[in-house]
Amino acid sequence: MHFTEFNFHPGLQEGIEASNYETATPVQEQVIPAILAGKDLIASAQTGTGKTAAFLLPIINRLLEKETSGYVRALIIVPTRELAIQIAQHVEGLSYFTSISSLAVYGGSDAQNFVGEKKALQMGADIIICTPGRLIAHLNMGYVSIKGLQFLVLDEADRMLDMGFSDDINRIIAQLPRKRQTLLFSATMPSKIRKLAQQILTNPVEINIAISRPPEKIIQKAFLVHEPQKIPLIKYLLTRKPYKRVLVFCSRKRNVKLLTKTLKQNGLKVEEMHSDLTQSQREDVLAGFTSGRIPLLVATDILSRGIDIDTIDLVINYDVPRDGEDYVHRIGRTARAEADGMAYTLVGEKEQNSFFAIEKLINKEIEKAKLPEFLGPAPAWRSPNKNNHTPFKKHSAGYKKRRS
Ligand code: AMP
């Protein structure tokens, strides 16, 4: 589903485009309409599924329907300071072309930050992303403008309970207006989460996105590359060994077409598969691939789910799939039945966040392979903990001045 189909506020749509989001992930397809319809929600969704944007987009859109009130209007409670900063950057990127203001409030920061947070909480930043303890410290001082709260989000709720935040969360909730929309996200659904949900949610919509994991026998490797190195690297990988059947995935049709054309020019027997083909063209290509007439196929995610061909021995990701589930589905095309399989992922410098999110999702560190020397120097891997989701140069996660 394309994001334009949600008819979001134009400023928000601009932020979505600037973030390079085109189509909604499965979690987003289910969560966004429920939130827009004003429902409470409990969703089991892990990092890497696009869950953050799934709740941020409808919240921002709903907040834009009304003038800013001078109250905090959405409160997002998270277990760690890193997650608070990451979500604040996400908010800032998505709401960049709107009047929405936001602030990350987290423990461990200095006294000066506390003063800045106090000011923003008094003035009523639209969206506050906070860790429980630090918010309580502010709430206890009595100046937080919380009367107009419309949304409460508990993100990674299972982790918060595991970290012993249960009492803090109850104390915060006791101070919030009863009439509000509450959204609870949790990777797992143990009974203590169900109990919490019963206490704080009203007739919630329940969304369960089961995460599959790739089979252990798939050998997964990743190359960090500069964009212009991608096509030469694919040519190299394809000619290193004789493969019977290879599938290359690209997120965009444009790249599928460009890559297919270049590989053809290099004498490779290759076809393309994407949504611009007619149904009969698609069937023809798929039949050729299944029969072995076409040994190499470049495709969009149109082909990442559902095709069942047992002997694909190599899957190459030309780019990092935007949704972690797509990664699992893409590489799951290889090593089916008894066969072994290889999966290479080409990670552009700017795709590292999405790549680390995938590693988190599948709970596995993917081997980082060395780029062949003749392709020139590769970029250096960043630390997985340093997140930056903003598509813009640099913004602090602090209080954002209102734009008129
Ligand atoms: P999350 O599961 O919220 O941690 O998101 C994982 C990664 O996917 C983040 O880097 C997001 O910026 C990115 N992302 C979320 N939704 C989309 C989308 N619809 N298209 C492309 N990337 C997305």
Structural notes for this entry:
- This protein is α/β, with parallel strands linked by helices.
- It folds into 2 domains: 207 residues, Rossmann fold, CATH 3.40.50.300; 158 residues, P-loop containing nucleotide triphosphate hydrolases (Rossmann fold, 3-Layer(aba) Sandwich).
- Helices cover 37% and strands 16% of the residues.
- It contains 14 helices and 14 strands.
- The strands form 2 sheets. It has a 7-stranded parallel beta sheet with strand order 3-4-2-5-6-1-7, sandwiched between helices.
- Strand 12, helix 13 and strand 13 form a beta-alpha-beta unit.
- The C terminus is likely disordered.
- The structure holds adenosine monophosphate.
- The site of adenosine monophosphate (AMP) has 16 residues, from helix 3 and helix 14.
- Adenosine monophosphate binds next to helix 3 and helix 14.
